[in-house]
Amino acid sequence: MELPRILREQVEEMLEGQPLDGLKRAAARLSSRYRQELRDGSFHISDSLAAKAYLAARLPATYAAIRAAYEMISQARPDFAPEYFVDIGAGPGSALWAATDCWPEIKSAVMVEASDAIRNVGRSLSGRLDLQTEWLDGNLIKALPKIAPADLVTIAYVLDEIEPHQIDASIDKLWAMTLDTIVIVEPGTPSGWDRILAARDLLLSKGAHLIAPCPHASDCPLARPDWCHFSRRVARSKMHRLVKDADVPWEDEKYIFIAASRFAGEAPQARIIAPPQGSGGVIRLKLCQSDGTAGERTFSKRDGATFKWARRANWGDEPERDGE
C-alpha cells in the first residue's frame, strides 16, 4: 500500500532539502520512544525535526494500518457513509487521509492533537483535501476541546501513550462523542492487543456492536503467548529507505484494532488471524470464527470454491459474503 498521491507529493516537498543525518537521528529517537512506550510527560513529536522524521519513517505505515482497518469496517457496514469525522491524537492526519480515501462522503473533520509541531504539519497537509477541517489543541487525559458528536470517531496509536488506569475513562469520553462508529488502532504487539481487549470489553459493556475485526462478541479465544494482530505491507519511498537504512522497498506494519458501533453490522463467518500456510493442493488457515472459537482449518481441492478462496486469501481476510 502507498500513500495517496497528493499526500505523498506534499510529504516529499516538506522533506526536500532536509539533511539526512538529522532525519535519521530523529527517526531513531522516535522509534526508541515508541518501542519503549515511554510515558515521561514529553511529546514523542516535540519539534519540527521530529515531525519531519515521523513523515519519513512512520506516516506510510500508520496510514496503511488505519486504511486496512477502515476497509474491514466498510465490508461489514457497506451502507455506512460518515459525513463528520473526529480524530483524537491526530498526529499529521494519517486517519483523516485514510478515512477520506475509504469514505469520500466525509464533508467535515475535527482533528485534535496536543503537539504543536505535528499539528501544524497535519493542518498544512490537510489543506489539499476537499472538505472542511478544523485542527484543535487538546489532550484526551488533561482537557479536550468541546466537540460535537461525530459519525466516525478514531483514536490511532494513542492508547500506548496513556497510563493503563486511564484507559477506561478515555474510552468513555470517546464513546460519548460517537454517533455511530468508533475505531481504535494500536500497534500489533502483545501489549497493544491487551489495550484493545480492554477497550473491547468496555464497549461491549456499554451495549456497542462489534463491527470488525471480531466475527463474534464472545470472549477472545486467544491466550498468550498467542495474540491477535494483523499485518499490512507498506511500500517504502526512497526517503523512507534512506531514513531507516533499509534495502528492501517495503515493510510490514503489524497492527490491531477494534471497531464498534451503536448499530449492528453484518458479522463475517470467520476472520483469518495469521499468515496462510501451505501451497499447491493444501492451504491451512488459522481462523477466528463466529461461534467464538479459533483454530486451524485445512482446505484442499476437494473443497471446490472454498479452496479457491483460501488459496488467494490473505491475513485479515474474511470468507466471501453472499453476492460477492
Could you describe the 3D structure shown?
With 324 residues, the chain is of the alpha/beta class. It folds into two domains: 5-261, Vaccinia Virus protein VP39 (Rossmann fold), CATH 3.40.50; 270-312, no CATH class. 36% of the residues lie in helices and 23% in strands. α4 (59-76) runs parallel beside α5 and α7 (167-176) packs across α8 (190-205). The model has no long low-confidence stretch (mean pLDDT 93). GO terms for molecular function: iron-sulfur cluster binding; metal ion binding; methyltransferase activity; structural constituent of ribosome. This is Ribosomal small subunit methyltransferase Rsm22 protein. Pfam families: Rsm22. Keywords: Iron, Iron-sulfur, Metal-binding, Methyltransferase, Transferase, Transit peptide.
Topology of helices and strands:
Blueprint: H1 5-15, H2 20-36, H3 48-57, H4 59-76, E1 84-88, H5 94-102, E2 108-112, H6 116-126, E3 132-136, E4 150-156, H7 167-176, E5 178-187, H8 190-205, E6 209-212, E7 230-235, H9 238-244, E8 250-261, E9 270-272, E10 277-279, E11 282-289, E12 294-300, H10 305-312
Parallel strand pairs: 1-2, 1-4, 2-3, 4-5
Antiparallel strand pairs: 5-8, 6-8, 7-8, 9-11, 10-11, 11-12
Helix pairs in contact: 2-3, 4-5, 7-8
